[in-house]
């Protein structure tokens, strides 16, 4: 059985239709092919609006997640945007790689739990229904991406690798920073996110870990485009 690992969908009231289509198709294909799915945190948006409102806005996807879960085909981990949505981490046994840790990764983000992070989350939770607040949050993300993203990503990777070691695993698959990463010989893997016209994820199968993406053009029937492998 293959395992598909994806996260950081942030679905809710404000999601573009393209994101909903991609997420629905991802789950539909997993159900059709009998794949196991790990949804690795921040699936439904829970900072800019209550998770319950986000889930209600995407009722079809909420039902599909529940159905796959009831069939034993899907497990969720929690992220900082959907606390309590699942377990903190999952350890999968792989015949070739050994133990593979799957966790969202927010708990090792230096911003998580900091005064700055808590202040930003508080503003978003209280005023996230305002478009100007959501826009300001996106501007901050863009600013970070063009200034200190490389430094932040390096620190995040080091902390994630520490988490892999503490769990006694060989590889860790994370999310949270929305930047896909897979390199040969690297124990740190990031599944990426749902953004623009693509849904990024990784596949764990007998051969190892492979980076994949589902694009809007794939919904016409072509196979998902592939990425790197480990």
Descriptive tags:
230 residues, 37% helix, globular, Purple Acid Phosphatase, chain A, domain 2, single chain
Description of the molecule:
This protein is an alpha/beta fold. It has a single domain, classed as Purple Acid Phosphatase, chain A, domain 2 (4-Layer Sandwich), CATH 3.60.21.10. 37% of the residues lie in helices and 24% in strands. It has helices at 17-33, 51-57, 59-70, 115-127, 131-147, 149-166, and strands at residues 3-6, 36-40, 74-77, 89-94, 98-103, 171-174, 188-190, 194-195, 198-205, 208-215, 225-229. Strands 1, 2, 3, 8, 9, 10 and 11 form a seven-stranded mixed β-sheet that branches. Strands 4-5-6-7 form a four-stranded mixed β-sheet, with helices on one face. Strand 4 and strand 5 (98-103) form a beta hairpin. The mean pLDDT is 89.
Mass-distribution shape: globular
User: Gyration radius, to the nearest Å?
Assistant: 17 Å
Count of discrete domains:
1
Number of separate helices:
6
Count of strand segments: 11
* Full CATH superfamily name: Metallo-dependent phosphatases
Under the CATH scheme, which class? Alpha Beta
CATH structural fold name: Purple Acid Phosphatase, chain A, domain 2
- Average pLDDT level: 89
User: What's the story with the biggest beta sheet?
Assistant: 7 strands, mixed
**What is the helix fraction of residues, given as a range?**
25-40%
Low-confidence stretches: none
Class per helix and strand makeup: alpha/beta
CATH-level-2 architecture:
4-Layer Sandwich
* SSE pattern, N- to C-terminal: EHEHHEEEHHHEEEEEE
Beta-strand portion reads 15-25%
Query: Separation of termini?
Result: 18 Å
């Amino acid at each position: 059985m293959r395992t598909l690992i994806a996260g950081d969908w942030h679905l809710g009231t404000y999601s573009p239709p393209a994101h909903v289509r991609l997420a629905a198709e991802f789950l539909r294909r997993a159900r059709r092919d009998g794949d196991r799915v790990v949804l690795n945190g921040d699936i439904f948006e829970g900072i800019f609006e209550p998770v319950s409102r986000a889930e209600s806005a995407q009722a079809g996807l909420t039902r599909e997640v529940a159905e796959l879960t009831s069939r034993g085909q899907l497990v969720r981990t929690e992220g900082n945007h959907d606390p309590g949505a699942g377990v903190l981490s999952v350890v999968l046994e792989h015949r070739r790689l050994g133990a593979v840790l799957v966790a969202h990764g927010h708990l090792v983000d230096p911003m998580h739990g900091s005064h700055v992070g808590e202040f930003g989350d508080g503003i978003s939770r209280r005023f996230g229904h305002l478009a100007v607040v959501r826009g300001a949050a996106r501007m901050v993300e863009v600013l970070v991406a063009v200034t200190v993203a490389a430094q932040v990503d390096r620190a995040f990777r080091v902390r994630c690798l520490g988490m892999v070691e503490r769990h006694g695993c060989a590889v860790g698959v994370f999310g949270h920073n929305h930047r896909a990463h897979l390199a040969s010989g690297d124990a740190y893997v990031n599944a990426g996110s749902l953004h623009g016209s693509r849904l990024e994820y990784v596949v764990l199968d007998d051969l190892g870990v492979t980076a994949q993406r589902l694009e809007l053009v794939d919904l016409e029937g072509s196979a998902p485009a592939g990425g790197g492998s480990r």
